[in-house]
Write a structure and sequence with these properties.
There is one protein chain. This protein is an alpha+beta fold. It has two domains: 6-110, Ubiquitin-like (UB roll) (Roll); 122-449, Creatine Kinase, Chain A, domain 2 (2-Layer Sandwich). 37% of the residues lie in helices and 19% in strands. The chain is built from 15 helices and 17 strands. It has helices at residues 6-15, 39-48, 114-126, 162-167, 169-181, 207-227, 273-293, 299-302, 334-337, 351-367, 385-390, 400-408, 411-417, 419-436, 441-449; strands at residues 20-26, 32-38, 50-53, 76-81, 87-88, 95-103, 131-136, 138-145, 151-153, 186-191, 197-202, 205-206, 231-233, 249-254, 315-317, 324-327, 339-342. The strands form three sheets. Strands 1, 2, 3, 4, 5 and 6 form a six-stranded mixed sheet that branches. The longest helix has 21 residues, at 207-227. It is globular and about 65 Å long. The protein binds glutamic acid and magnesium ion (MG).
Length: 452
């Protein structure tokens, strides 16, 4: 994904033999959807976009349309591509894709457009000369279809094991190649704890691009797996008794001079005062923010104590049970590498909403010069309830309903989202909570496996 213009896109499509160009967006249910144009209409569509019924942002991840004012059968918005996100897709024949903004017919950003929400939050940071940079790590489950119509893990190997690496090597090689071909810089790959679980991470980028990159990761992981006769799922908990799939968000704030505003050479943990304020803001809003970062029914099967997913609203240094971790910087370059990690995040999120919410919360901490409570340098689940109470350690919501109720009662976050996005988001996610309630674990797992 390089900065580009319409002429470049048209030439690249011609040279690459592209027949269909996908105009993509991520909806309130965290599902990536889109429409594709054939080459005959591409030049016009780059400017005009493709029409989308307003009802799609009231559609949940079971394709059940929810009653939301202003999102009925009448009215449309336009999916207008960001040309900088253009990529020829390496895992399907003759196809390219863009990520799109949702614009009203008067060309203004639509109130329910998630990408425009993140742009608004980005402007809030820019007003203070700050830029959020982030990367969402993708944990995912590789699986094989079973004759019964279900899935089983692709391997039965150990965490970080070379046996797993070798078994999945052809897939991993193709995955890295496909991501690089789309302009992403791959950083690490390894087999993770659960059978069939793998993880890949890409270099951090400015927040909007980081959200686009996360969608590219999700699309590419699933697409390349398919080419290899495999299924890949980024659902938070594809197997109830095995480690879940997180999408840990690593983030840092950069100033106008291009320096990492989280870095202070004189602080023992290298975290600056601004870093502490930002962290304190995210922590203060975290029980509500998880409604955006861990937003599916299946998310709360993952978000359990002692699974390294985080279950308490605490922070710590290299503490894998803390929702927020100060990641210790690289020896060779602490200034550029000190960053924070939010573990309470997964790939059933809409990354524009997750990063926009995180940025809003952190900026609130900066504005109010919030100081974080004492760090927790042990497993909070190992403390007694009384000890946790004394230390002011709060449990994160343990169900989607609880998280959504928290979000609804946080006017700072709902104001940031704006009325149309807040209302449609709550309606869609609440309807998913209702659809899975009383249905049993198999229905829940099957309902999330193929969508994320
Ligand atoms: N799989 C764990 C999760 O659900 C994370 C393991 C790790 O990378 O620390 O978040
Ligand atoms: Mg991991």
């Amino acid at each position: 994904m390089v900065a580009t213009d319409a002429e470049h896109v048209l030439r690249a499509c011609h040279d690459g033999g592209v027949r269909l160009a996908r105009f993509l967006y991520c909806d309130n249910g965290g599902v990536i959807r889109g429409k594709a144009t054939a080459m005959s209409g591409l030049a016009g569509r780059l400017a005009d976009g493709i029409g989308l019924t307003v009802a799609m942002m009231a559609m949940n991840s079971l394709d059940q349309l929810q009653p939301v004012a202003g999102m009925g059968p009448v009215g449309e918005v336009r999916l207008v591509p960001d040309l900088d996100t253009f990529a020829v897709l390496p895992y399907v024949p003759r196809s390219a894709a863009f990520f799109c903004d949702m614009l009203r017919l008067d060309r203004a950003p639509w109130g329910a457009c998630p990408r425009s929400f993140l742009k608004r939050m980005r402007e809030r940071a820019a007003a203070q000369g700050l830029t959020l940079r982030a990367s969402l790590e993708a944990e995912f489950s590789l699986a094989l279809p079973t004759p019964e119509g279900g899935y089983r893990p692709f391997d039965r190997t150990l965490c970080f094991s070379t046996v797993a690496m070798t078994q999945a090597a052809a897939f991993a090689d193709a995955l890295v190649g496909a991501l690089e071909a789309q302009g992403l810089t791959v950083e690490q790959y390894y087999p993770e704890l659960a059978h069939g679980q793998h993880e890949i991470s890409v270099r951090h980028a400015e927040a909007l691009r980081a959200a686009d990159n996360h969608l590219t990761l999700r699309e590419t992981i699933r697409g390349v797996a398919r080419e290899h006769g495999l299924a890949a799922s980024l659902a938070p908990k594809p197997w109830p008794d095995a480690a879940g799939n997180g999408a840990h968000i690593h983030f840092s704030l950069w100033d106008a001079a291009g320096g990492n505003a989280f870095f202070d050479a004189s602080a023992p943990d290298s975290l600056s005062e601004r870093g502490r304020h930002f962290l304190a803001g995210v922590l203060a809003h975290l029980p509500e923010l998880v409604a955006l970062t861990c937003p599916s029914v299946n998310s709360y099967r993952r978000l359990q104590p002692q699974t390294w997913s985080s279950a308490f609203a605490v922070w710590g240094h290299d503490n894998r049970e803390a929702a927020l971790r100060v990641a210790s910087p690289f020896w060779s370059n602490a200034a550029d590498t000190v960053n924070l990690e939010l573990k309470a995040a997964d790939s059933s999120c809409n990354p524009y909403l997750a990063l926009g919410g995180l940025l809003a919360a952190g900026l609130d901490g900066l504005d109010r010069r919030l100081e974080p409570p004492a760090p927790v340098e042990e497993d909070p689940a190992a403390l007694t309830e009384e000890q946790r109470r004394e230390c002011g350690i709060r449990r994160l919501p343990s169900t989607l309903e609880e998280a959504l109720a928290a979000l609804e009662s946080n006017p700072f976050l709902t104001d940031a989202l704006g009325p149309l996005l807040a209302e449609s988001y709550l309606a869609v996610r609440r309807s998913e909570a209702a659809a899975y309630r009383d249905q049993g674990v198999d229905f829940e797992i099957a309902g999330h496996f193929d969508k994320y």
